[in-house]
Design a protein that fits this description.
26% strand, single chain
Length: 149
C-alpha cells in the first residue's frame, strides 16, 4: 500500500493497484474502518473475481465504497452483496454504503470520495484508492484533484 497524498483537509489517501490474478492479500489499515474508491480499469474482470475483492474489502473494514470505471454499477451491487454475506442483519455499526459514478469527472469523484462519504456518526480517516488494473492517467487525474478537494 502506497501513501499517495494528504488532502487539503488533512486526510491521508493510500493506493493499491491490483493486477490479474486479483487478490487483496492483506487488509488495509489493519482492520480499521475505511472508505474505498474502486477504480475498475479491467472490463474483463470476472464476476467471481469482482465478488472476491468486494468480500475481502468488506471483511477488511470497508464502510463506504465509491465505484467508478468499467461496469461500476456492478461493483456497487457486488459490495452490497458482500455486505449482506458478512453481516446478514445489516447492523448499523457494520453497514457499508455504496455509490457508483458512471460519468462523473475526476474532480467530482475526488470531491465526493473525500467530502461526501461521512454518514450517521461515521467520520473516516482512512481512504484507499483501489485500482483494479492499472490506469496511470486516471489515477494521476484523481490524485491531483484529491489534493484540492
Amino acid at each position: 500500500m502506497e501513501h499517495l497524498l494528504t488532502s487539503s483537509r488533512g486526510q491521508d489517501v493510500f493506493h493499491i493497484c491490483l493486477t490479474s490474478p486479483y487478490s487483496l492479500d492483506r487488509p488495509p489499515f489493519a482492520g480499521a474502518d475505511f472508505v474505498v474508491l474502486i477504480i475498475n480499469n479491467d472490463p474483463d474482470i470476472s464476476a467471481d473475481d469482482q465478488y472476491a475483492l468486494s468480500l475481502a474489502l468488506v471483511r477488511a473494514g470497508c464502510r463506504y465504497a465509491v465505484c467508478i470505471g468499467h461496469n461500476c454499477s456492478t461493483w456497487d451491487d457486488s459490495v452490497d452483496y458482500a455486505n449482506m454475506e458478512v453481516d446478514p442483519e445489516l447492523t448499523d455499526s457494520k453497514f457499508v454504503m455504496t455509490t457508483w459514478h458512471e460519468s462523473d469527472t475526476p474532480d467530482q469523484i475526488a470531491n465526493f470520495f473525500l467530502n461526501c462519504t461521512t454518514f450517521d456518526d461515521n467520520v473516516f480517516t482512512n481512504f484507499l484508492i483501489l485500482s483494479v488494473g492499472p490506469n496511470d492517467k486516471l489515477l494521476a487525474d484523481i490524485t491531483r484533484q484529491c489534493t484540492v478537494a
